[in-house]
Specification:
By secondary structure, the chain is of the alpha+beta class. The protein is built from ten helices and 15 strands. It folds into two domains: about 120 residues, D-amino Acid Aminotransferase, Chain A, domain 1; about 160 residues, Alpha-Beta Barrel (D-amino Acid Aminotransferase, Chain A, domain 2). Helix 8 crosses helix 10. The longest helix has 20 residues.
Length: about 325
Amino acid sequence: MPHSLTRTRRGARNHNSGMHPITDALPATLCYLDGEYTALRDAKISVLDRGFIFGDGIYEYVPVYFGQPFCFEEHMARLDRSLAELQIENPLSLAQWREIVMRLVAPGGNAPQSVYFQVTRGVAPRDHAMVRGIRPTVFVMVNPLPPISDAIRAKGVACVTAADFRWQKAHIKSTSLLGAVLARQISVEAGATETIMFRDEWLSEASSSNVWIVKDGTLAGPPKNNLVLTGIRYGLLERLCKAQGIAFALRPISRDEVFAADELLISSASKELLPVVSLDGQAIGNGRPGPIYQSLYAAYQQAKQHNAQKHGAPA
């Protein structure tokens, strides 16, 4: 027998004798799958689910602070928009989505958590054409949300750049994330926090973050269009800027402007707002987190507390 075939058969016996080590390590926390609550490690879908076969689905990622989802209505509105782009009807009402979230996050108490939502077109024989009349697959899970340390925030982070080689419908929060995976791996291999991308020398976004520059006291980001996923922090930062008296603009931003910025920031549900002090090894501004970042980050923390208090949670 060829050696490779022997290894395959031996591997098959090992696979059948027990679970994979990663599977063994999956938490027993509760998740939601198609109307039922079950342990995450026991949740299963069909191999013919179109999300598995084609990446034919959408997702959302919502942070939870003090036991309450943050910017929940905005996240669910984006979920609606993404589903509409894929011609999938939203299977649940806003109240039903919230009910699922509150049940899943309850065991975590007031610790920061994240909720991941995924809706796929459902299960059908493999065919590229959109299948009508099938039930969407709905999955929701919760995970801890470790905060970025004060030391990292005080120092700032380094990022690298790359060409934006992804598709032309980046505004859909699709589960088809291979482009983002490849982009993020560029910064992983460079020992950097994020990969900031450009289309024809114009800023688009990072692999899993929106990108902002500060110049002469104005916070500016790329315009909302099909080339950028409009992060929920778009609206949040606009509101925070207004409250803090900081000018806010959405417009095309060139690569040269990014490197010449006074401050460079990235934002996402998990990172909140983070200062970038080095890009491709070049210092941004004076190489330290700037005053606009400091002001907006402080206001962000206040917004989290206000959201919790609005829903009756101690903050």
